[in-house]
Design a protein that fits this description.
Layout (H helix, E strand, L loop, with lengths): L1 H4 L3 H12 L3 H18 L3 H20 L8 E9 L3 E5 L5 E5 L17 E9 L4 E4 L7 H10 L3 E9 L2 E6 L2 E6 L18 E10 L4 E5 L1 H18 L5 E10 L2 E5 L4 E5 L20 E10 L2 E5 L7 H5 L8 E10 L2 E7 L2 E6 L21 E10 L4 E5 L20 E10 L2 E7 L2 E6 H6 L12 E10 L4 E6 L14 H9 L10
Parallel strand pairs: 3-5, 13-15
Antiparallel strand pairs: 1-2, 1-4, 2-3, 4-5, 6-7, 6-9, 7-8, 9-10, 11-12, 11-14, 12-13, 14-15, 16-17, 16-19, 17-18, 19-20, 21-22, 21-24, 22-23, 24-25
């Protein structure tokens, strides 16, 4: 009893716990006491502990970040660009760099700036540096299988041709690229790829890597599709852009504008007439064209729209009444088209071909390709039409008709046409008279269309200089049968009813 009286309460608790096989309670009690003392005596301590704990948590989080491996696809913000390298932050304490030449465009320019995002594949990594590139350049068969599944580009060198395609060396691993998968366009020299290095996509992986098939075309088409979308977003009607001639056809040329082709129709090559697109362009040529129509992905282009309208230029140099030397282009039933200046055409109507003869077809007067002199009659600027005349250059016999024939004179003429109201008789080059049907009946003279071209003797009964009309009668018509009469009235009536029956517009 005495010993029990001398045991303190703390010793009782400790002894009891020891008997039960645990010592946690004292520790807990002691901890509580210490905490209370700390809270009471050292108030700033918790803030310092929290700061230490945050730093520790940050260190732990960085430790737990997965280390990048060769072949991983990464993306980060560009933090610096030098003459040779692009530096990228991958997050945490790790930065990476890429060779600048990897990301320049076909024009040799880098379309990236600090702050932009850059994506690539890790091709080298160690404790000191991480190098990224647009494609994998150092791989093994396992990586190639991963590359196929993830559609990651790999770099390879074309080493030889084989049946149906090419042998590709991808860091010591051999692969096969079918000929149809080497490019996205038809090429004439299939040997041109040998010895060159390109990026490829693995499209088949069999027999544990002993049978690997790759494609360059897949990458080219993906790149072209991206470029097409960018180009279409910038194109608009009226824009002038640069393009490369990719194909020539009989109806025009196809121009690559950057991922998408536009059609340059043969009618839009020039203001002048073009027989064949190959007369002006050749495949591979770079030209400037103007966009004149966009319908979905169909783009119409023009070279002519970039050239001055030759008609506008021509009318500054010519005027009505001018004499011009022109080349006969085409003979049509109604007249002849002539070239006045390059790409500037005019029309010589059949009625303006000659004064002294009836012209049935322009080919009777003009031959295609001939050079002729003509006078400009009219210029219609609004309709861009020019009319010319050959007849205007010939002497007008009516200017001197009195010295050619006189009233009452008997002359020889040629029957040019026979109609129901009379016959037209050519009495002189450029001068035609009318022998009325009534006068033929009085003189017992009968003419039919079969008589056209025959000579006939007639008397000049009347000359109307103001109206440019000559009335004729049979040469043996008795004087008693002669009387004054407007012999042309039937002609005027007939002309109104059927203008086609009179081919002599001069009358």
């Amino acid at each position: 009893m005495h010993e029990e009286t001398n045991i303190t309460p703390e010793e009782k608790v400790q002894t009891s716990n020891q008997e039960e096989g645990t010592t946690s309670a004292p520790v807990a009690e002691t901890t509580v006491v210490q905490t209370e003392e700390t809270e009471t005596e050292e108030t700033p301590a918790p803030a310092a502990d929290e700061e230490n704990n945050f730093e520790q948590m940050l260190e732990d989080s960085l430790i737990n970040i997965k280390e990048p491996q060769v072949g991983d696809k990464v993306e980060g913000e560009i933090i610096n660009i030098t003459d040779s390298y692009i530096f990228v932050s991958l997050g945490g304490k790790r930065d990476a760099y890429a060779e600048k030449t990897e990301y320049v465009g076909k024009n040799g320019e880098l379309n990236l700036k600090v702050g932009d995002s850059l994506a690539g594949y890790i091709v080298k990594t160690d404790e000191t540096e991480t190098l990224i590139a647009k494609s994998l350049v150092s791989v093994n068969r396992r990586v190639l299988q991963d590359a196929m599944e993830e559609k990651i580009p790999v770099s390879g060198k074309v080493i030889a041709m084989t049946k149906g395609g090419y042998l590709i060396n991808i860091s010591g691993v051999r692969a096969f690229c079918p000929m149809s998968q080497m490019d996205n366009k038809i090429v004439s020299d299939i040997q041109q790829y040998i010895g060159e290095s390109y990026d490829f996509i693995v499209i088949d992986y069999k027999e544990n890597g002993r049978n690997i098939v790759v494609s360059r075309r897949v990458l080219l088409e993906a790149e072209r599709e991206k470029l097409k979308i960018e180009t279409l977003s910038k194109l608009e009607v009226g824009a002038v852009c640069e393009g490369r001639v990719t194909r020539l056809t009989n109806f025009g040329a196809f121009i690559d504008l950057g991922g998408i082709e536009g059609l340059l129709h043969i009618s839009e090559f020039s203001w002048a007439r073009i027989e064949s697109p190959s007369d002006m362009l050749h495949i591979g040529q770079t030209i400037e064209v103007k966009v004149i129509k966009i319908k979905g992905e169909k783009i119409s282009l023009s070279l002519r729209a970039l050239q001055e309208d030759p008609f506008s230029a021509a009318v500054r140099d010519i005027k009505e009444g001018d004499l011009v030397t022109c080349r006969v282009l085409r003979n049509l039933p109604f007249g002849s088209f002539v070239e006045i200046k390059p790409a500037v055409e005019g029309l010589i109507p059949i009625s303006e071909m000659a004064r002294n003869r009836r012209v049935g077809h322009p080919s009777e007067m003009l031959t295609e390709g001939d050079m002729v002199e003509a006078q400009i009659l009219r210029i219609d600027v609004e309709k861009k039409k020019i009319s010319l005349s050959l007849k205007a250059l010939e002497a007008d016999p009516w200017d001197n008709i009195g010295s050619i024939i006189t009233e009452g004179e008997v002359i020889n003429g040629v029957i040019e046409n026979v109609v129901n109201f009379g016959a037209f008789i050519r009495v002189q080059d450029g001068v035609t008279g009318l022998l009325p049907q009534a006068k033929m009946r009085q003189g017992n003279l009968e003419l039919t269309p079969d008589n056209v071209g025959e000579e006939i003797k007639v008397r000049v009964s009347r000359i109307d200089i103001n109206s440019r009309r000559i009335s004729l009668e049979p040469s043996d018509l008795p004087a008693s049968a002669r009387h004054e009469r407007d012999d042309w009235r039937h002609y005027r009536k007939e002309k109104r009813n059927n203008d086609d029956e009179n081919p002599f517009s001069v009358l």
